[in-house]
Amino acid sequence: MSKKFLKVFFSMSLLLIIGKLMGFAKSMLIAYHYGAGYISDVISFEDSLINELYSVFATFLGCTFIPTYLSENENTRTELTNKLLSAGIFFISVIILAAELFAPQLLKILVPGFFDIYDISQMVIITRINLINLFGIFLINYLATLLQANKIYIFLALEGVISSLFIILYLCFLWQYEIWGIVVTRIISSAVIVGILLTAVRTTKIHSFKMYTRINDDRIKGMVKTAFPLLIVSVLYQMNYIVDKSMASGFMSGSVASLNYANLLATALYGVVGYIISTYAYPMMAEKSEDSKKVFNKYYYLLCGFVIPIAVAMCFFSKDIVAIVFGRGQITSENIQVISLLLICYLPGIIAYCIKNYLVKMFYVQKDTRVLVFIDSAGVLVNIGLNFILAKFLGVYGLAIATSISYYISMILQFIILTKREYIVATKGINIRIMIMLIPTVLLSMLMSFVAVSYIESQALRLAIFMFTTCIGLIIFNIESIRTLVVASAKR
């Protein structure tokens, strides 16, 4: 681990942890004021709806922009970036217009179960207002990716802090306006974040903006060609999203919210650890293609060394984590039990999710994205198929288990193809080492969890034991990196 990486990692980690803590505080307040019912279901749906509608352009931008941008000189970079901005605004406008016109039909497809248990006419109006925020989400991601390409990472973490702060303030003082106020607050927070990012771009002088009415460009055509396979995959993920939400909406009231709460806790692991490491390593692999294999191996083990011990500890302390985060207000003990079991179902899959999102970066670097259609299609089809099978026997838990299994399918296929095409090398030894380190980590977590459940009643003390267990797990996995840093410091 280099000092530069540690500096970026810990500065971003601090902001992302603050953002995640604020995100938890936001979810805690939603759970406190609204419980797991109509309002929390609608909030969960509306939040994910925007992200899913935007995901097609996000896929295009995320997989092609940075390698193409870094291959251009300063003048051509500016032109390319502005043409992408013009194209993006047009594309997002078409999506918003179509979704506004067909909002009732969209809801009928996505959440058919809501039509039987909720007032759908109100949801249609809420959805139409919420769609305006697509512009904000697009501009935030566009500007953040531009800053990332210039190795300015801090604003990637700042967005979550600001957006959560606005919602928290709303829930503290104006919560009685329910979902209507939350939708408006999100639009306002997006506008503020866009303003901050624009200021950062102008202050650093990395780009000057200009709109184009003609966006015909061979580079963009090349980016579309590279991204097209992933756009197909994105459509498949939308199908998977439709199946997930559609089936969840057919279970008891609060099922969508419970899935969202558990998923929020599980994906925090990616948001704080996996995202940072992947974000930091990606430009380095893209910029130094001849050393990309070495860079990949270095940060691959680092990723596993952070993600796995934390995920293992969270599995064994899931009920305590859920109780501490959500266990108050309108959330019942039954809700806590459901969410904690869903969290256990999600966490093993999150390890695979972090790894597969890191592996994807090597396909981007090699500009080999066609094979990802096969890989992700297999994962999505497995997920959809298992949804129908497992949900029939396990209910809402089956949806979470199906998601975890599908992540492992995608991850394993990525490893096989990356190794076969020699994009990565010498990962077998790393994986064996990870498996060896996993054994004492699981045993430690199991023992500490048993002690906490059997002998300790205080939630604060249980949380302290969870933190202690996590720290020991991190030391077990990263003992060699720690030793290297100590030796380097001693020599200086």
In which range does the helix fraction lie? over 70%
Overall morphology = globular
Spatial separation of the terminal alpha carbons: 16 Å
What is the overall pLDDT average?
80
- Which residues sit in consecutive blocks of at least 5 with pLDDT less than 50? 485-490
Oligomeric state of the chains present here = single chain
Q: Tell me the count of domains.
A: 2
Question: Which structural class do the helices and strands define?
Answer: mainly alpha
Number of helices: 19
Largest sheet: none
Integer-rounded radius of gyration: 22 Å
The count of β-strands is 0
The run of helices and strands is: HHHHHHHHHHHHHHHHHHH
What amount of the residues lies in strands? under 5%
Write up this protein.
This protein is mostly helical. It has two domains: 1-230, no CATH class; 254-492, no CATH class. The protein contains 19 helices and no strands. Helix 3 (74-101) packs antiparallel against helix 7 and helix 11 (255-287) runs parallel beside helix 14. It is globular and about 65 Å long. The model is unreliable at 485-490 (pLDDT under 50).
Secondary structure: elements and pairs:
Blueprint: H1 3-34, H2 38-70, H3 74-101, H4 103-110, H5 114-117, H6 120-130, H7 133-149, H8 154-173, H9 178-204, H10 218-249, H11 255-287, H12 292-316, H13 318-326, H14 333-365, H15 370-394, H16 396-420, H17 428-455, H18 459-477, H19 479-491
